[in-house]
Design a protein that fits this description.
Number of strands of chain A: 2
Structural class of chain A: mainly alpha
Strand content of chain A: under 5%
Distance between the termini of chain B: 66 Å
Strand content of chain B: 5-15%
Order of helices and strands of chain A: HEEHHHHHHHHHHHHH
CATH topology of the largest domain in chain B: D-Maltodextrin-Binding Protein, domain 2
Oligomer: heterodimer
Shape of chain B: globular
Number of helices of chain B: 19
CATH topology of chain A: MetI-like fold
Shape of chain A: globular
Helix content of chain A: 55-70%
CATH class of the largest domain in chain B: Alpha Beta
Largest sheet of chain A: 2 strands, antiparallel
Structural class of chain B: alpha/beta
Distance between the termini of chain A: 40 Å
Chain lengths: 309, 431
């Protein structure tokens, strides 16, 4: 039997009690909804509109169609900021994942003082970004910093972490790895879920530690890896605060624009050069890049991720 | 029924509170004026200064200072801009005016009966666009050469004689640059871009600027700009740019501390501003420092360029959205009065922009500070030319400077590229 559509649609009749519940429910939802509409949806829609215009705060928008997007393609700083960001995504994220996985494996070993080690590795991640970045400015100081001093003891002349464009991004990656406690904790929880019977079975079959790790643990935590990978990639595409602080009192992007990341350049356009329309276009391009990357990762990961059950 | 009323009541309450929050109470009806100041190391002192206005007029003034640079735009575009906004520099005022964010001040100057002849011309110039006045300078900065007398003595130089020419400065720098027994750089004679760039000063010394004097043309690849960059480059290339960078890494961040290289005997000469001679810097961090201050020397073949200096510093604007323009104008006039200028800038050891205020003994009694006061009256004192593309251009120029100084790049090629990129942008912006 065909159902007849009417307008307005006829909803099932609610009992008074249900209606009251619905209203109360909506009331509880209201604060979030208002916040979402006013501070997320509206700015997103507005920035989409602005991205096709030259924005004047006190005068009407000047429509330029796709000009902002076309200009982006010709802007050498845009490409530089994108390549700086991709460097961090391609090198920083996998390195951090690998390191946090191994830290988690070590922290999962049943040794004396296990919880103390866990606390020690987690602590840096609760230090506020600005504070930890300033701390690392001291650690990485080529003359007086502890890192180059330690490298000096083993006969290595440490680089100019802060003023050499080749070393500034590795410096930032080091800084990021120091604060990877959050990722470690997520991995740790995943490691606890690796079934003991599988590990024991493998051991009985003569698998050594490395083989058990590679053939049992790694596949079992692959959903965790995927989660960490995707959140890490998204976070890295928006990399801002560390780079903003790391330049010290130099201009944004110092040295030689090697730390001019996508979000930094976006900020510079929007809030320092007053090119709000152009910055909005940048924001949407970033959104699309992140969307594509995430979908790609999800697609590719299907072959590598094992969901038990 | 009971529930229905409750629902109605709570939602009304919510909506009402939101409306209140979003409107912030609407236009202020009270007699409170708000002054936002971008710099301001000592907000309490500034508030106390403006409390005097309250004592005189009964109008309360609320000071907000300091502000991050990305708060300025929201301050100007928001529905409730401050009544007077004090910016760290005049770079963006013309852009703001073009965007309709700040008032043209001739009306306010009339209302407040502000005497334009009392301003030193160099700082006032940065506020003028044609016959329009877009801002008024409120205290300003100039730069000169600082030298460490102890280090001069150790190097066998006369501690009381600074270099007389830019060439001599390079010779002195050579003598003052010291390597340790292991061959590592330990001490620098001169660092041209210590803490921040001073290319504006050096370019002026070489007889030009990166804009034509009227600001309508870009001259970024003109000979003075090339010369200024080449001259600075020697202080890196001669000693190995990487070594100089390694030694000076972190120096800029030690600016407000006793570890500043100029105090610790690591840097013998550099360029800095007048505030250093006041109570809050050298006297606070290294009271026993033995140092001298002199106008930066000119090139040997252009002695007539002696006492060349660039002026840049704080300017006050009235936001276009200010509610009561008359009240803003009166407050602005009060801020510009010689007595207030003298009090504020005596305290912070910045240069007064009022000629009458500059006669105050507090500015003239410190001979080192007096060097800057005299510089401001010099006919060679020039303001920094600004255009609507200043900020973007400055960033691009900063990058060229970094490439030339820190990597030994050829300035001519880079500046040609920059010129080709930015000249059309300038013409577009000036339309």
């Amino acid at each position: 039997m065909k159902r007849k559509w009417t307008w307005p649609p006829k909803l099932p009749k609610w009992k008074p009690r249900q209606r009251v519940n619905f209203r109360i429910g909506m009331l509880f939802l209201l604060p979030w909804t208002i916040g979402f509409l006013a501070f997320t949806l509206y700015p997103m829609v507005a920035s989409f509109v602005y991205s096709f215009s030259i924005y004047h705060s006190k005068q009407p928008l000047e429509w330029v169609g796709l000009q902002n997007y076309a200009d982006l393609l010709k802007d050498s700083l845009f490409w530089q900021s994108l390549s700086n960001t991709l460097y961090m995504v391609a090198i920083g994220v996998p390195l951090t994942l690998l390191a946090s996985f191994f830290c988690a494996v070590l922290l999962n070993l049943k040794v004396r003082g296990q919880s103390i080690y866990r606390v020690i590795y987690f602590l840096p991640s609760i230090v506020p970004t600005v504070a930890s970045t300033i701390l690392w400015l001291w650690i990485l100081n080529p003359q007086t910093g502890i890192l180059n001093t330690l490298l000096g003891y083993i006969g290595i002349q440490g680089p100019n972490w802060m003023s050499n464009p080749v070393w500034s991004k590795p410096g930032l990656i080091l800084l990021g790895m120091w604060g990877m406690g959050g990722t470690i904790v997520i991995y740790l929880s995943g490691l606890q879920d690796v079934p003991i019977h599988l590990l024991e079975a493998a051991e009985l079959d003569g698998a050594n530690w490395w083989q058990r790790l590679w053939h049992v643990t790694v596949p079992m935590v692959s959903p965790i890896t995927l989660f960490n990978l995707i959140t890490g990639v998204i976070w890295m595409f928006q990399y801002f605060a560390q780079a903003y602080v790391f330049r010290g009192s130099h201009s944004l992007g110092y040295p030689l624009n090697s730390t001019l990341f996508y979000s930094v350049y976006l900020y510079q356009n929007a809030f320092l050069w007053l090119k709000m329309g152009y910055a909005s276009a940048m924001a949407w391009v970033l959104f699309i890049i992140i969307l594509i990357c995430t979908l790609l990762l999800l697609k590719v990961s299907e072959r590598f991720t094992y969901y038990a059950g | 029924m009971k529930h229905k009323n409750l629902w109605l009541f709570v939602s009304l309450l919510l909506i009402a509170s939101m409306l209140l929050a979003s409107c912030g109470g609407g236009k202020p009806k009270t007699s409170v004026l708000r002054v936002w100041i971008q710099w301001g190391d000592n907000p309490q002192q500034i508030q106390e200064l403006f409390d005097k206005y309250t004592a005189e007029t009964g109008i309360k003034v609320e000071v907000t200072a300091p502000l991050e640079e990305d708060k300025i735009l929201p301050a100007l575009t928001g529905s409730e801009p401050p009544d007077v906004l004090v910016l760290s520099g005049g770079d963006l005022v013309k852009s703001y005016y073009k965007e309709g964010l700040v008032e043209e001040l001739s009306g306010a100057i009339q209302t407040g009966n502000i005497d334009l002849n009392d301003f030193f011309p160099a700082p006032l110039d940065q506020c003028q666009m044609g016959d329009k006045i877009l801002c008024l300078p409120w205290g300003t900065d100039m730069y000169a050469l600082f030298w460490n007398k102890d280090m001069f003595e150790a190097a066998g130089l006369d501690p009381n004689t600074p270099p007389a020419t830019m060439e001599e400065l390079a010779e002195f720098a050579d003598k003052l640059t010291v390597r340790g027994a292991d061959g590592k750089l330990e001490q620098l004679g001169f660092l041209p871009d210590q803490a921040w760039s001073h290319s504006d000063l050096y370019v002026r010394m070489f007889g030009g600027f990166w804009y034509s004097e009227d600001g309508t043309q870009l001259t970024a690849n003109s000979q003075p700009v090339i010369d200024a960059l080449t001259w600075q480059q020697q202080f890196y290339t001669k000693y190995g740019a990487d070594e100089v960078l390694a030694l000076s890494s972190g120096w800029a961040d030690a600016y407000m501390s006793a570890d500043y290289p100029f105090y610790t005997g690591k840097l013998a000469m550099y360029v800095d501003g007048e505030w250093m001679t006041g109570p809050n810097f050298i006297s606070a961090f290294k009271p026993e420092a033995s140092y001298g201050v002199a106008p930066f020397p000119p090139p040997a073949d252009h002695p007539e360029r002696a006492n060349t200096a660039v002026v840049q510093g704080t300017v006050a604007v009235i936001p276009a959205g200010a509610v009561d323009k008359d009240a803003s104008a009166k407050l602005l006039a009060w801020m510009m009065s010689p007595a207030i200028v003298a009090e504020e800038f005596c305290f912070n050891a910045n240069l007064p922009t009022s000629k009458k205020a500059a006669e105050d003994p507090c500015f003239t009694s410190n001979p080192k500070f007096k060097v800057f006061v005299d510089l401001m009256a010099s006919p060679n004192a020039k303001y920094i030319i600004t255009t609507p593309i200043s900020l973007e251009l400055n960033d691009a120029l900063g990058l060229v400077e970094e490439q030339v100084l820190h990597t030994g790049a050829d300035p001519k090629l880079l500046l040609d590229t920059l010129q080709a990129e930015f000249e059309p942008k300038l013409q577009e912006a000036l339309k």
